[in-house]
Each structure stands twice: as structure tokens, then as C-alpha cells.
Amino acid sequence: xxxxxKVMVAxxxxxxSTVTSLMLxxxxxxxxxxxxxxWYYATSGSSKKETGCxxxxxxxxxxxxxxxxxxxxxxxxIREEFGDFVIENFxxxxxxxxxxxxxxxxxxxxxxxxxxxxxxALDCEFIATGHYARLGQTPDRYFIRKAVDGTxxxxxVLWGLQQDLLCRTIFPLGEYLKKDVRTLANxxxxxxxxxxxxxxxxxxxxxxxxxxxxRHKVPGLxxxxxxxxxxDKSGNIMGRHKGYPFYTVGQRKGLDVTFGKPVYVTAIDPxxxxxxxxxxxxxxxxxxxxxxxxxMKYDSIRPKTEAxxxxxxxxxxxxxxxxxxxxxxxxxFFESAKGVAPGQSAVFYEGEDVIGGxxxxxxxxx
Length: 366
Hints:
By secondary structure, this protein is an alpha/beta fold. It has helices at 15-26, 56-69, 79-95, 102-121, 163-166, 178-187, 191-195, 210-217, 221-225, and strands spanning 6-10, 30-37, 73-77, 126-128, 133-137, 142-146, 169-170, 229-231, 237-240, 264-269, 274-278, 284-295, 305-310, 318-324, 328-338, 345-350, 353-364.
């Protein structure tokens, strides 16, 4: 019996999850490695070879590390679970004129639940991942904290994890800088991992062409949505577009039409197949509504709670005031926020700590 307990580590074959498993092994945990196969690229319509965490080379890299260090490794096929929720949500959100974040949906609804289910079956007390985040705790709550390495911090994508998951999760890399993790990979005898290219693509869209993916998943889509109008904020027609699902709020490039000046997608009307264009100043919003709330640090929040709100992964955050409703939160920004996109996540911070988060439903001006 291990002195530290038994932990199931999600291993992608990359540097972060490999170093995570070896660190925990050295610390005295009984480690079981597990690699999750989430998607089969032949069904995506992409011609690109599988990349990232779902290809055979990655599986072999993860298994090799486990074998070399004497702990078991398994491949877990969750394609059915993943596809039924994450893929359907991805398609449905674009068809509704919103911009989804499938990695957050996967973490929130699929990956952690799949890990915990298998951890229970193998009598593991803990689950661990290579995310750059830290875990905080009050007498009765667990919550995510920002990673020490601000350039790699992944707290934004973990806002949906619930208490029963957080209380059994370990994030060994949260206290480390990425450069230190690369050093550890070298020290463990994996110099190739230290220089291995990391993938930032959506795992089921290996060529980063989500429009092609939508066309493949929704036969006849273009015939249903092509030929809609670009309009300005007054409703004046500015041109024709290729279909509202192929655009996202804040987009400037790839509009395939020229207007003699920079223009941006400022809103999408799926019911009328309309894409609204405007100037950069038209992207700024003073308020937004956030639903599908998951609170972490507190079980409830008071009206007029001040927070730093992030509206995208690389967003540094906006000073805001939160007004909780029955099933949503109204967010009022101290200074207007640029590019608030329905479907994306909003995450609320108190210093380094995640108060909670949710999905952006709508935005506007006061």
C-alpha cells in the first residue's frame, strides 16, 4: 500500500501529463496512468493526420513512460460519451449563432466524470492532470486557483468542475513554471518531451477548420444558411455572407468581402441568417448575462460582489460587479469589455481564486 494513496493520472503522452505522473510516482503515490481516446478523426471530414492527444504515437509515449517507471497504464475509449455531448454541443451552439468552447465542456461534463468513474472502479482515492492550476480549500469548499506561471495558467478552462470532483483532484504543476517542467522532463530522461511541439487545436478539428467540420457534420448546411446578409447596426445591407454559423463575434479576418475599412462581426442573428458588422468601437459592451453557473469558492454570492471577470482564455480580466439572479448572473463592467461573445465562458476571480463561472448568454450597453 502506498504511503500517499492511489492516484489515477490522465496521460496524453505530452510533457505536462508525463511529468505529472512521474512526480507523483516519486512522491510515493501508487500511480495508474490512463489515456483517453476522445475522437476518431476519420469521422471529422479532415484530411489531416491525427495530432495532439488522440493519436497512436501519444498513446505509445504515455505507455512507455509508465512501463519504464513501473506503474500500469490503460487506454480508455470515451468516444461515445465525448461525441454524444461535446460534439453535439459544439454543432448546436454554432447553429444557434453562438461560439462554443468545447475544451471547457469536455472538462466540465466528460473528462473528469470519466476519470472519477474509472478511479472508483480501481480504488483510486485521487485523480490528477497536468493542468497549470492550483487547488484551494476553505473549511467546506474546494476551488481552483491560478497557476504560479501566469503565461500557462489554465484556471479559466476549469471553472465547471464541481465539488465532488475538486475534492479528489491533484494539480502537481500548479506551483511550477513551464521552464522548470521542461527541466524536470530532461532530468527524468525525456529530452524529446522537453522540445515536443504542443498542440493548441480543438482535438476533433485537427486542421483548425471548424467550418469544414460543421459542413461534414451537418449535411446540407450550406444550402440552408448561405446567401444571408451582412448588415450594419442600422440594418442596412452591406453585402452577402456564406452562412451565419461560419462567423463569430469579434471576427475581422476571413469575411471574404472588402469595405474599404476594418469591420468586425458585432452580432449574429441566426433566425434571419444575418451577420451584423461594425467598427471596433461597436464591439464594446458594458453588461452581460451569464448562465449555467457553477460556483466554487462560495456556495452563493452577494449582490454587488466585485470580481475580475475573464471572457476568454487569454483575457487579462475586467473589473466588474456581479448581480446574482435566480439562475444567472448579471455582470456590469467598470470599463466596457471588448468582444463579449455569447457561448463563450465567463470566469469570476477574487484575486488568484476562482469564485465560479458560467456561459455568456447575452451582452449589451446600459
